[in-house]
Amino acid sequence: MPVAPHAAVIPGKYYHTAYTECMNLMDYSVAVIPVTKADKSIDLFDNDYQPLNADDRKNWQAYDPEVYDGAPVGLQIVARKHEEEKVWAMAKIVDAALKTRGREITNYGHD
């Protein structure tokens, strides 16, 4: 699952990957956990939302519930270099929390 600081990538559109590259270049310890999938019936666009900075104002309406319906939603856990054990421990906590909600990471995408 690719990681990015924005909604899932729309096929055919270019998105920057600097956020992911940064984690790799700095050799940070990272875990990426698939959590759920976007659901157009509950992940509605908030028409009252107003971004605070200029960069977000340009792209803030990029989210379209129809386009993103079914797209993966993930969580990235990041720690400093050589802290893989901490990341693994946090990922296990997230996995346990997901299991209490009736979801298992290992079953993601195999519905």
Automatic annotation (TrEMBL):
It comes from the Eukaryota. InterPro entries: AS_sf. Gene3D superfamilies: Amidase signature (AS) domain. Belongs to the amidase family. PANTHER family: AMIDASE DOMAIN-CONTAINING PROTEIN, AMIDASE-RELATED-RELATED. This is Amidase domain-containing protein. It comes from Lepraria finkii. The lineage of its organism: Eukaryota, Fungi, Dikarya, Ascomycota, Pezizomycotina.
